Amino acid sequence: MTTFNHQAYVPYLLRRITDTLIERFTAGLAPYGITLPMWRVLAVLHRRGPTRFTVLASQTLIEPPTLSRLVAALRTKSLITKKSSDVDARGVLFAPTKKGLEIVERVTPHALAVEAETLGGLTEDEAEMFRRLVRRVCAHLAPFAPDDAGGGIESGGIRPPPVLR
Questions:
Q1: Where do the domains of the chain lie?
Q2: 84 strand-pairing partners
Q3: Class of domain 6-149
């Protein structure tokens, strides 16, 4: 009979890491009045610029009904805008406001600190190998949609983050 060791079981280990990271990261969101899913929306929009709803759902890994509620809440907080696409008259794009961009800029150092703490027990080479292995597992189990690597619909590719003034 094979014995099962949950402490060596990869899904268990990944869940344990994820739960710990979420707890540490969300503590840094509280001062800004946003949740982790709201952060994911803002971070994607910060990176991509104006983005279609379907791409936003794919990028944030948030189901459309939940994303609809989040988008409404973010609009109410004046953190994102909704506008018609210049490319497709029927298309709608969501974009971060200056206030939304400022939150991403303020939270990013915390996000990077959580990542640094996560990888703190590894050498630089091990940390890079870990990232590559996680990306490979992700590509095998849950590949990114073709548009996931690109920038906003209007920009035609990845655009640099905006400079706040």
A1: 6-149
A2: 92
A3: mainly alpha
Cα–Cα distance, 141 to 115 (Å, whole number): 22
Helix H or strand E segment including 54: helix 53-60
Amino acid at 120: G
> Residues 141-155: pLDDT tens digits?
988 766 554 444 333
Which strand (E) or helix (H) includes residue 27? helix 10-27
Three-state DSSP at 114 gives helix
CA dist., res. 143 & res. 128, Å (int): 20
Q: Residue 79 in contact with residue 96, Cβ under 8 Å?
A: yes
Q: What is the pLDDT of residues 70-86, one digit of tens each?
A: 999 999 999 999 998 88
Helical pair 36-48 and 53-60, crossing angle rounded to 10 deg: 120
Structure tokens of 29? 């969101």
Whole-angstrom Cα distance, residue 36 to residue 66?
13
Please give the single-letter amino acid code of residue 7: Q
Q: What are phi and psi of 51, to 5 degrees?
A: -140, 140
Amino acid identity, position 25: F
